[in-house]
Amino acid sequence: MRVSAICTGNICRSPIAEVIIRALVADDPVLHGKVEVTSAGTARWHVGSPMDQRSQRALQRAGYADEGSVGIFADSSFLDSHELVLVMTREHAHDIRERHAKVDIILLRSLLGADLDVPDPYYGDDAEFDACLRLIERGCRELIPILRERVRAEQLGAESN
Questions:
Q1: Which pLDDT tens digit goes with each residue over 38-72?
Q2: Catalytic, out of 7, 12, 132, 140
Q3: Would you say 4 and 37 are in contact if contact means Cβ atoms under 8 Å apart?
Q4: Domains of the chain and any CATH numbers
Q5: Catalytic site residue 140?
Q6: What is the DSSP string of 7-56?
Q7: Among the options 28, 66, 117, 120, which is catalytic?
Q8: 102-129, pLDDT tens digit by residue?
Q9: Which residue in 12, 13, 54, 132 is the catalytic one?
Q10: What is the pTM of this model?
Q11: Cβ(72)–Cβ(39) under 8 Å?
C-alpha cells in the first residue's frame, strides 16, 4: 500500500508527516514492509528541494532521524500510484480531488475529530514548528489503525482469490 502526506510546498508539514508515518509503520508488525510512505506538494515551488531545515530540526528534537524525501509535485501520475493521501488542509483535499478523483483522501485533523487545517509553520519560529509536529504526530498515530485495517483487508482479499 502506498500512502502520501500532502501539503502545499512539500518542505514543512508533509515531510514531517512522512517521517512520522514511516517511523510508526516501521514499528508496527502488521504494517512493516507492507506500507510505503511518501510526501508531495500541491504546488511546484520546491520540487527537488530538501525538507525545510526548521522541520528537520523539529523532527530531530522529537527524536526522529529520517531526513525525508526531496520535494515532489502531486500530479495525477503521482496520485495514480497511491491508495491514500493524508492532506494538511481542506484546500489540499480540494486540489487533490480536482487532479485525481479516485485516491482516498483523509484530512489530518479529521483524525482528531476536527474539520480544521494544520497551520503552516513556514513563517513561524521553532516553537511553531514544534507545535505543528506535535499536532501532526497525534494525527498520524490515529492513522495507524486505519492503515492496519486496510492492510488486513487487502491480505484477506488476496487469500480469498
A1: 999 999 999 999 999 999 999 999 999 988 889 99
A2: 7
A3: yes
A4: 2-160 (3.40.50.2300)
A5: no
A6: ESSSSSHHHHHHHHHHHHHHT-TTTTTT-EEEEEESSSTTTTPPPPHHHH
A7: 120
A8: 899 999 999 999 999 999 999 999 999 9
A9: 13
A10: 0.96
A11: yes
